[in-house]
Specification:
Number of strands: 8
Largest sheet: 5 strands, antiparallel
Number of helices: 3
Structural class: alpha+beta
Radius of gyration: 17 Å
Order of helices and strands: EHHEEEEEEEH
Strand order of the largest sheet: 1-8-7-6-5
């Protein structure tokens, strides 16, 4: 078993505040993962808690469902660091991984916001295949993230200009 490290970065035309709300909401995570995986979050959870009291403690069990149907993994969702508005580190025990660490950093930039996902994980089996799947999956997540906020920005421009289009 060897540890794998991969990083994904996107520049997104949105504010850091909007991206923080998205990245820490169950809705945003679900949207980024769909349709490949569905994460069955703990009942009643809508947002990643930002209070220090929940750090390092499992928030509950989460099933990963391939295409929303087939159970493929189980996580004890655990956040070990949260800097509200800037970054979080999720370090959850998974059935498929000896170790798992996912850090998301949100940083303002000149033309929007940088979103960086850093992953370090040690698969229990098939390291090459798992690395390929995780890499493809996070590329997909970043594509969804960029597309969602690009579309929001485009729609906002249309709405701002549309009242004057008939003048």
């Amino acid at each position: 078993m060897s540890t794998v490290s991969v990083t994904f970065e996107s520049k997104v035309p949105a504010t850091p505040g909007d991206l923080w709300k998205w990245s820490t909401s169950v809705h945003g995570v679900d949207a980024e993962m769909a349709p490949v995986l569905k994460l069955d979050f703990p009942k009643g959870m809508e947002q990643i808690p930002e209070d220090r009291n929940s750090l390092g403690k499992p928030l509950g069990n989460c099933k990963f469902l391939l295409f929303g149907l087939i159970p493929v993994d189980l996580s004890r969702l655990t956040f070990v660091e949260v800097e509200p508005g800037r970054r979080f580190v999720e370090q959850s025990p998974l059935l498929s991984m000896k170790d798992w660490r996912h850090e998301r950093v949100i940083a303002p930039g000149p033309d929007g916001t940088r979103v960086v996902d850093k992953l370090e994980f040690t698969p229990r089996f098939a390291t090459g295949m798992v690395k390929w799947f995780i890499s493809q999956f996070f590329k997909h997540r970043h594509t969804v993230l960029r597309r969602t906020f690009q579309e929001r920005r485009s729609q906002a421009r249309v709405q701002r200009t549309s009242p004057y289009a008939s003048v």
